[in-house]
Amino acid sequence: MSKFTWFTGQRPALTQAQLTRRQALAETSCLNDGPLNEQRLVVLDLETSGLNMRRDQVLSIGAVVIDQGAIDLGQQFECTLLREGHQASASTLIHGIAPSEIANGEEPAEALLSFMEFVGDSPLLAFHAEFDQRMLARALKQSLGYRLQHAFFDVAEIAPLVCPKAKLPHAGLDDWTQHFGLQVQQRHHASADALVTAELALILFSKARQQRLDNLPALLQQLNSRRRQRAHSM
Question: Which intervals hold domain Exonuclease (predicted)?
Fold first, then answer.
């Protein structure tokens, strides 16, 4: 590995090889207006040291791919990140990642480069996506000096949009999986949560198509309209 490093202030410090990989990351593009069942989408879940988006850290990343209208189990990503000095806290009881696992995790720049190479230029999906988006963006900026510009879609927003009769406007992932009778193998584990979120997304995309929301731009337009309506009613 090259001894040369690249700096922005004091951090991040990247080797020349890492910098080359960062420069080669796919550029984001406009949303594809093709049918939903022809899209490649990356479904993401993060486990973190806490819920403070300014202070806490990403501990693990789990992701699966929806491609051609199905979950492609051949395209999965799972990684625990090395966080020096990490200690057990209240959040450890939720995600179950022991400090020893964190101590043996992958160096953050390497982990995040690998993840963004996995993502490519695909849009991202998550449940309560704002949290994942902001945590991922901060991690990428701190470790890589990389600005996240990928489109993010929130499954928690899509669900009530296409299933208004469900009467679950502020429901969590457990509520929606129970509503549709999905089997959850493990909760608060990044890869398992990403998988069940992807299963839920496929159900919601099917309902969206029935409502003539058959591409991402159309879905985004309806989500934005719903946000404006809710803002005016507050």
Answer: 40-210
Specify the CATH number for the domain of residue 123.
Answer: 3.30.420.10
Could you tell me which of 133, 149, 163 has the C-alpha nearest to residue 226? 163
What whole-number distance in Å separates Cα of residue 231 and Cα of residue 91?
A: 32
Assess if residue 6 is contained within a domain: no
- With 0-12 CB in 10 A as exposed, 13-18 as middle and 19+ as buried, what is 55? exposed
Q: Are 155 and 197 in contact (CB under 8 A)?
A: yes
What predicted TM-score, i.e. pTM, was given to this entire model?
A: 0.89
DSSP class of residue 188 equals S
Structural domain containing residue 178:
37-156+167-233
Residue 133 resides in a domain: yes
pLDDT (tens digit per residue) in 168-219? 878 999 999 999 999 876 665 788 999 999 999 999 999 999 999 999 999 9
**Percentage of the chain lying above the pLDDT 90 cut:** 71
pLDDT at 1 over 70: no
| Three-class secondary structure of residue 179 per DSSP | helix
CA nearest neighbour of 212 among 139, 162, 165: 162
CA 63, CA 130: separation in Å to the nearest integer? 16
